[in-house]
Amino acid sequence: MRGAVDGLANPFPIGEQMPSVYAEDEMAQRFTQALDDLMAPMVSVLDCLPAYFDPAVAPVDFVAWLGTWLGAEVTGDEPEQTLRDMVAGAAALHRLRGTAAGVREAVRLAFGVEPEVIESGGAVWSARPLGPFPGDPSPHMTVRLRVPDPDTIDHGRLERVVTSVRPAHVPCQIEVRRAGRSR
Prior knowledge:
Strand content: 5-15%
Helix content: 40-55%
Radius of gyration: 27 Å
Structural class: mainly alpha
Shape: elongated
Order of helices and strands: HHHHHHEEHE
């Protein structure tokens, strides 16, 4: 919570900027001193404004709000470092939206675990026409997350994260499995 800070001084005291006729007026100086106390936090915020837009150093409540600007899939109950990482990676994640790499990165940022993404698509170039197409003819995607305890994963949140970055036209299956199992 930001607000008045004891001992914070306005670096531009209003009383010193008043016309000379008010320089010796005790009432005017006390009045402007009160205004200086009100202005000091605002001047401090404006002086530190670039830090507010850096998720690594901004206040946590502001980082969550900044995440709404960037479309980060945050719920507000993430650990602080996870929240900061998700907001910091949100802009770069928009470039990867709709790709397997984007799904992997979004899940890694949100849950701290690298998922396995299996997709049907492919891309190829050929100088000869009518060559074979890569991948499967019907689109599908499977996102598999392997964790020590599957019960610790919020499945609804995982589904929201994957849905927000997966290709919109591709059906997706999400699996959470215990680490160490091969199938």
